[in-house]
Design a protein that fits this description.
The structure is a single chain. This protein is 32% helix and 27% strand. It is a peripheral membrane protein. Keywords: ATP-binding, Cell membrane, Ion transport, Iron, Iron transport, Membrane, Nucleotide-binding, Transport. It comes from Cohnella boryungensis.
Length: 264
């Protein structure tokens, strides 16, 4: 059984179609990256699969069951979403933010428990934020702030984690730090991770499965070594490039053509 599936998914904003009859399967226990040109609908697809957007036609299956038929809290216990550029209320501490990840488990009959405390402590330790727990989120650096949001998602305790451009606004060091953290989660805990990424080379390095979006459909998908070619880059991004082997990781490395000092 797949972790997530989109079946004949049609999504639109009014009369503007974003996807038509799109089919996609997300395997369990793997890292999947969605890539494509700006405006191709990567974030829309992620939001639809997280049930934040209602498809015009088709269905999303969460572990084999229609996500539309599941209670909201049941979905939140099985799948977490970190949106692009999240913001926290002013004055909120890291600890308070991470505790919000336990919201799906709270009710009149089930208040804060030792299990909730354990998940929050584990999330803080995993992201290296224990000593910053009482710091205000808006006082953190960009990299620390992103780790705090990832910690909140981890505290939710779901097997499936969706992230919309988790490296946006981060410098190179903090991009690698955030992606290393997510990769460690996959290695240690076997989480299913789905990310929207702009950087093709980082997507190749960290993901097991790439999904390239073009013309309202999945243009091509598969392991990075099969997906990322000069032909695919030109078709999907309208850009000429050379694709070589990364000397450190052995994954595809896209070298785009453009102006600059070329070797003669």
């Amino acid at each position: 059984m797949e972790a997530l599936e989109a079946r004949e998914l049609t999504v639109s904003y009014g009369n503007q179609f974003i996807f038509q009859d799109l089919n996609l399967s997300i395997g369990k226990g793997k890292i999947t990256a969605l890539i494509g040109a700006n405006g191709c609908g990567k974030s829309t697809l992620l939001r639809t699969m997280a049930r934040l957007l209602k498809p015009r036609e088709g269905n999303v299956l969460l572990e084999g069951r229609s996500i539309a038929a599941l209670p909201t809290k049941d979905v939140a216990k099985r799948m977490a979403l970190l949106p692009q550029g999240p913001s926290a209320p002013e004055g909120l501490t890291v600890l308070q933010l991470v505790k919000q990840g336990r919201y799906p488990y709270q009710s009149w009959l089930h208040q804060w428990s030792k299990e909730d405390e354990r998940h929050v402590r584990h999330a803080l330790e995993t992201t290296g934020l224990t000593e910053l727990a009482e710091r205000k989120v808006d006082s953190l650096s960009g990299g620390q702030r992103q780790r705090a949001w990832i910690a909140m998602v981890l505290a939710q305790g779901t097997e499936i984690v969706l992230l919309d451009e988790p490296t946006t606004y981060l410098d190179l060091t903090h991009q690698i730090e955030a992606l290393d953290l997510l990769y460690e989660l996959y290695e240690r805990e076997g989480r299913t991770i789905v990310m929207v990424l702009h950087d093709i080379n980082l997507a190749c390095r960290y993901a097991h499965h790439l999904v390239a979006i073009r013309d309202q459909k999945v243009f091509v998908e598969g392991p990075p070594e099969q997906v990322v070619t000069s032909e695919m880059i030109e078709s999907v991004f309208n850009m000429r490039s050379n694709v070589i082997r990364d000397p450190l990781y052995g994954t595809p490395l896209c070298v785009p053509w453009g102006k600059g000092r070329m070797i003669s």
